Amino acid sequence: MRMYDIIKNKRDGIELSTKEINFFIENYTSGNIPDYQAAALLMAIYCNKMNKRETLDLTKAMINSGDTVDLSHIKGIKVDKHSTGGVGDKTTIALGPMVASCGIPFVKMSGRGLGHTGGTLDKLESIKDFKVELSSKDFFEAANNINIAICSQTANITPADKKLYSLRDVTATVENISLIAGSIMSKKLAIGSDAIVLDVKVGSGAFMKDLDSALTLAKEMVDLGTGFGRETVAIVTNMDEPLGYAVGNALEVKEAIETLKGNGPKDFYELCLSLGTKLLLLAKRCENESEARELLIDTVDSGRAYKKLLEFVENQGGDISYIENTKLLPKANYIVEVKSDTDGFIKSMNAEKVGECSLILGAGRETKESKIDLSSGIVLNVKVDDEVKKGDVLAYVHGNNIEKVNEVKDYLKDIIFIGEKNSKEKKLIYAEVTKNGTRLF
């Protein structure tokens, strides 16, 4: 078998066989295929697409390129949640304890954040002494004893995807549904959770900017999960504005804590309930959505979810006084108000550009080697459709470099657009995608 023939076949629109896909992934991962040939095949895939069987084979090959994590040592139906990425998305930190306090093992292995803000691991490291690296033994014990474990993934999970992603990034081949879905799902499926809920973001702050593209991606990922024998559901959610109010690592941890105390932003709490409802149903903990939702609400109202967060943090070495007193979390030297210059309604705020502001402040990474400022970020004081008066505070900028703080302050005034009231009410959730079809809301 020759790489030349595989490239030629895909260039000519011919379906690749399982053997051809396996040959490519195995030999590219091992270094036997040069980047220029891999890039040529990626462009052929980008132009001529892959069918469902090819996409499933590509995903399986990437999973088999490295280690997999056997979770059979954990009792019960193991659940996981994945977001395609957004601004202010601290969902795991609140959702995990809510689900775990219902007696469901919530197990998650995550990577570091790259882009707007840190990932879940970076956010959790805002808590003093919190350990993101766990041995297999500690991971399994945590899942069995307290029903929650969140840690960094092993270095050898889907090495083929790591190589391909880097190449896609510099060859203008990122925006292909099969390649995106395969990349995301290979990492999820390499870790043996029984059920997965996917939060597929759509809007200005998401990778998918329009609903049709987001629905296509959601369906592709659900098909992959189902084809791999995992119960998989996708929820398509709004990312035209940041989720909640806080954007930035320690700031988002504080907001997640407040949510578990019953004081969280309405949109963030609702998303946790919606995703958690699906997880409880997949775990067969409840018989219907109403029962699952009520159970999750009770975990917050009763304080069980907050206590589970304390238990989770303590179990992974974290100082729980940082949870009990959020003033101990990393704090920026400067906090500057952004005020409205006019009366009106919040028409829109470009979530991607809000994320770029947090990156300027140091809350995210421009490269994998970048050091994150855990204290910096933005706390919005308004949401889309809110009415404001001239002089009202729109946001607070948190940072340790006053020049950058002032730069972001000016930038935010251009991002938060004030005008007449929107004619249509905004939605948080657009659709649910399962193996049986799509339900629009």
Description:
This protein has 441 residues and is of the alpha+beta class. It has 3 domains: 104 residues, Up-down Bundle (Transferase, Pyrimidine Nucleoside Phosphorylase, Chain A, domain 3); 223 residues, Pyrimidine Nucleoside Phosphorylase, Chain A, domain 2, CATH 3.40.1030; 90 residues, Aldehyde Oxidoreductase, domain 3 (Alpha-Beta Complex), CATH 3.90.1170. 45% of the residues lie in helices and 16% in strands. It contains 17 helices and 14 strands. The protein has a 5-stranded mixed beta sheet with strand order 1-4-5-13-14, sandwiched between helices. It has a 4-stranded antiparallel beta sheet with strand order 6-9-11-7. Strands 10-8-12 form a 3-stranded antiparallel beta sheet. Strand 13 and strand 14 form a beta hairpin. The chain is globular and about 70 Å long. The N and C termini lie far apart (48 Å).
Morphology: globular
Going by CATH, the homologous superfamily of the largest domain would be: Nucleoside phosphorylase/phosphoribosyltransferase catalytic domain
Ends distance: 48 Å
Side-by-side strand order of the widest sheet:
1-4-5-13-14
Count of the separate structural domains: 3
Radius of gyration: 22 Å
The largest sheet, given as strand count, sense and whether it forms a barrel, is: 5 strands, mixed
* Secondary structure: helix percent: 40-55%
- Strand percentage: 15-25%
Low-confidence stretches: none
Please identify the structural class as seen in this structure.
alpha+beta
Mean pLDDT comes to 94
Instruction: Tally the beta strands.
Output: 14
CATH-derived topology of the largest domain: Pyrimidine Nucleoside Phosphorylase, Chain A, domain 2
In the CATH hierarchy, the architecture of the largest domain is: 3-Layer(aba) Sandwich
Number of helices: 17
What's the CATH C level of the largest domain? Alpha Beta
